[in-house]
Amino acid sequence: MNSQPIIELHDVSRRFTSDRSDVVALADANLTIAPGEFVTVVGPSGCGKSTILNIIVGLLDPTTGTRLYKGKPFDGVNRDIGYVTQADNLFPWRTVLGNVEFGLELRGIGTKAERRERAMELLKRVGLDGFAGHFRHELSGGMRQRVNIVRTLAYDPAVLLLDEPFGPLDAQTRLQLQDLLLKLWQERAGTTVVFITHDLTEAIALADRVVVMSARPGRIVEVVPVDLPRPRDMYSIATDPQFRALYDRLWVRLEDEMRAPA
Predict the structure, then answer these.
(1) Which residues are within 8 A (CB) of 17 and not within 5 positions of it... i.e. 6 or more apart?
(2) Those residues with Cβ within 8 angstroms of residue 59's Cβ, 6 or more apart along the chain or in another chain
């Protein structure tokens, strides 16, 4: 991996203030992420996981501290970064193909024919080329998230942020999409992924490192390397003794944070 971090947070805090409340969502967060790294983030509900993603992409600014991308501070939304949320956010008036083409159109990438070819290649890669002419309401939840992911991957972002993208899906579909995401990431050498989840099994199985956050105000309390070989078999990895040891260690840490007084 490149020695220059692609993402850096130095003593980053974020406070939300209104007439009724003053809430510190994130406190003194320090994190560096290398190009091509797959990092997952876990922690109790309301601990600031999504706030970290919003700061990384530029939807939110830190209240205090420094945010760097490729060694430089920036303002506003960083267009090098793709963002996939739990809600698929597909445009209901566009077909599946039209949704995947959207990011390419927005960035003026290629001709119309080139955009269509690229979008169809990705849809074929995720088994949805036969649904190119369908609309959002005609797709299952898992199919929508596959479209959501490839719509973002279509323009080859340097960094891909995912905020619990598989949260609402059934266990079997989650497993299929976890496996698919790993394969797509491995095919794109150098793409950096930051993935938020409440599922500790998912966090370990996908990641190079797992970031553990405290209860609110959210702090990064531990960053744990996942020394499991790649490529990984998502269907059997949980039976690996090394996986179980990591799971038990992280669960104890998470349990302490979840039991912390609010």
Answers:
(1) 23
(2) 77
Instruction: Supply the range of the domain harboring residue 251.
Output: 36-62+72-258
Question: What does the alpha-carbon distance between residue 217 and residue 15 come to, in Å, rounded to a whole number?
Answer: 9
Query: How far is Cα 39 from Cα 176, in angstroms, rounded to an integer?
Result: 19
Ranges of beta strands (E only) in the chain are 7-17, 22-33, 38-42, 64-69, 72-73, 81-84, 159-163, 192-196, 209-213, 220-225
Query: Is 200 among the domain residues?
Result: yes
Cα(74)–Cα(239) distance, integer angstroms: 43
Q: State the burial class of residue 68 (Cβ atoms within 10 Å of its Cβ: 0-12, 13-18, 19+).
A: middle
pLDDT tens digits along 15-46: 998 877 788 999 999 999 999 999 999 998 88
Q: What is the mean pLDDT of residues 157-175?
A: 91
The number of domains in the chain is 1
Residue 162 lies in a domain: yes
With respect to residue 218, please indicate whether it lies within any of the assigned structural domains: yes
CATH code at position 94: 3.40.50.300
- β-partners of residue 73 are 68
Q: Which residues contact 63 (CB under 8 A, 6 or more apart)?
A: 13, 14, 15
The verdict on residue 25 lying in a domain is no
Cα dihedral sign for 47, 40, 203, 181? Answer: positive
Output the CA–CA distances (angstroms, integers) from residue 62 to 14, 68, 81, 187, in the order listed.
5, 11, 17, 33
Mean pLDDT of 78-102: 93
